[in-house]
Amino acid sequence: LGDVYKRQHMESIQQDNETINLKKIIIYYFRHWRCFLVAGIISFILALLYLILVPRTYEMMTKILLLEDKGTSSSGMNIGDASGLMKTFGLGGISGGSLNMDDELAKLMSTTTLQDVVLKLGLNVTYYKPNTYKYKMYEDVPLLLSTDSVTQKNLEFPITFNVDIDKAGKVKVVAKNEDSKKHFEFKSLPVELKLDEGTFVLSFREEEIKPLSLKLEIAPSIWTAQDLSESLLFDEFAKNANVVEISCTDYEKKRGLDLLQTLVDVYNSQEDSIKKIEGRKSVQFLDERLSAVVADLTNVEVNIERYKLKHKMTDIEYDVQFYADQMKELQMKIIELEAQMRLVDLLDAYVKDPQNRYNLVPIVLASGEGENSSKSVSSYNEALLERLRLLQSTKGDNPLIGQMNKQVDQLRESVFLSIDNAKKSLTLTLDDLKGKEKIIIDKMGVVPTLEREYIDFRRQQEIYQALYLILLQKREDFLLSIGENKDRARIIEAAYVKKKSIAPRKLYALIGMIIFTMVVPVAFLFGKEQFVALKKEYKETK
Predict the structure, then answer these.
(1) If residue 479 lies in a helix (H) or strand (E), which one and from where to where?
(2) Per residue in 342-375, pLDDT tens?
(3) pLDDT for 397 beyond 60
(4) What is residue 57's DSSP assignment?
(5) Contact, 216 vs 125, CB < 8 A?
(6) Whole-prediction pTM value?
(7) Contact present, 175 and 124 (Cβ < 8 Å)
(8) Residues in Cβ contact with 220 at an 8 Å cutoff, skipping those fewer than 6 apart
(9) What are the angstrom distances between the C-alpha of 447 and each of 327, 354, 443, 453, 507?
(10) Which of 60, 99, 103, 286 holds its CA 20 to 30 A away from the CA of 130?
């Protein structure tokens, strides 16, 4: 019992000492209330400066719907006796198919797209507002700085221009880059500033303003595009929807709205340009094939004419009407497959031509037997387009180009294999149908050899006629698609400015004031107390 009593007594004494120490600390800080007052005044001034100097920033947003490109189609065709021949051709449908949201977002967010936006709006030229801290003007700029596209493309480092215009209109310009500084003097604007990087034109935006002092800076457009990619936010509206929300923040409302609108316009322009390039390639391919088909069709018609003259035939169709009716359905199938085989042969010759190694391949396989082949050709063409984008946006020694070439070669081999498989499949089917045809012909023992030969001539003529009409129709479809402008991204919610500003925040200013007022004096007094204690301890040990 005695030990327990002593232990409880010691704990009570310890708690009293802690309470006394805490009171001493609180009283100590209350005695130095002037430190908290000074810190409060300083924090109030800093918060006030934050609210005054930080420009009011807003968030801008727009919503776009990405449309699937269905490509061109000519389903349900009726071509003479070959009714419904090859109802679904994928000819040239390189851009068709389902929409991949990840790919489209990558295009929207790419530095190539943003660089075009920067150059179109002139965002790589910064006009700093006088008597402010790096405030970038947009609408109310008094001067304009411009240069040619070659200089814009070759610019590697920023160039700063300090412009001073006195009351008499005399202009002084100091141009400074990383390595040098040049001084210019002119009597008035506009003027040309010739530097090592190129020629820059400086002029008044609307009316002359005197006197004037302004700082301008032009930076490489790719740098500005990289900074822009960090300030833009892309988000899918829903998991199964093709709607994208694009937002940005800026203290210049007009600049933010123009940025969102121009981004959509540039994206649509790029997609339309790619579509037209594909269309022109397909038209070129079709023109070459049409010439070859016309030549073959002419030869067949000349052979028919000679055959009739040689054997003195007039209306042999009426003589074989009975047998033609029986074989009509069978011939229809053979004609369809023969036309498909011709198209596959044309594609095979085009793909295996070394000159077409990196050219886009039109898809000319039917959707039945050639569905897998169409997919392989589509993948090959997409790889070629990606290689073309890399060549346009990077240097020739980029290792990515070598990797892309290997990928293109591998896909090219898969195209060869797909074409061979399609040819084998068509050949097997044709052999089977011709075997059935032979059985029917053998039954026609009374049919003269001349009639059977004439039927073969007529069949060849119909095949070439059907193939000619198909190619001609597809050519017209592509010419129409090249002429029309169809947006890939449709704006469903025009760019707008949200009601509440996002900066400066009064709450942040208040929290900063409280933290500064409480933490700084406590840290100062604590440090001072520790310093005094160390000093006293040092004297005692000495």
Answers:
(1) helix 449-483
(2) 888 887 887 787 787 777 776 554 344 455 666 7
(3) yes
(4) B
(5) yes
(6) 0.61
(7) no
(8) 124, 155, 156, 157, 158
(9) 13, 48, 9, 11, 100
(10) 60
525, two tokens: 């007094």
**Residue 385 corresponds to which tokens in the numbers above?**
């387009």
Q: How far apart are CA 488 and CA 71, in angstroms?
A: 12
Q: What is the pLDDT of residues 7-25, one digit of tens each?
A: 655 655 555 555 556 677 7
Residue pointed to by tokens 């001349």: 450
Whether 64 contacts 144, CB under 8 Å: no
440-460 tens-digit pLDDT: 676 555 456 666 777 788 888
Tokens at residue 259, please? 């940025």
Task: Say how far apart CA 157 and CA 222 lie, in whole Å.
Answer: 11
Amino acid identity at 538:
Y
Q: Return the residue matching tokens 């009171």.
A: 23
Which tokens sit at 177?
A: 């880059």
What number of CA atoms fall less than 13 Å from residue 104's CA on the CB side?
Answer: 25
Cα separation of 306 and 312, whole Å?
10
Q: Which tokens belong to 240? A: 């199964």
CA-to-CA distance for 322 and 443, rounded, in angstroms? 13
E strand residue ranges, 177-273: 181-186, 191-195, 198-204, 212-218, 233-236, 243-250
Query: How many Å apart are CA 172 and CA 191, to the nearest integer?
Result: 11
For range 278-304, the mean pLDDT: 85
DSSP state of 89: B
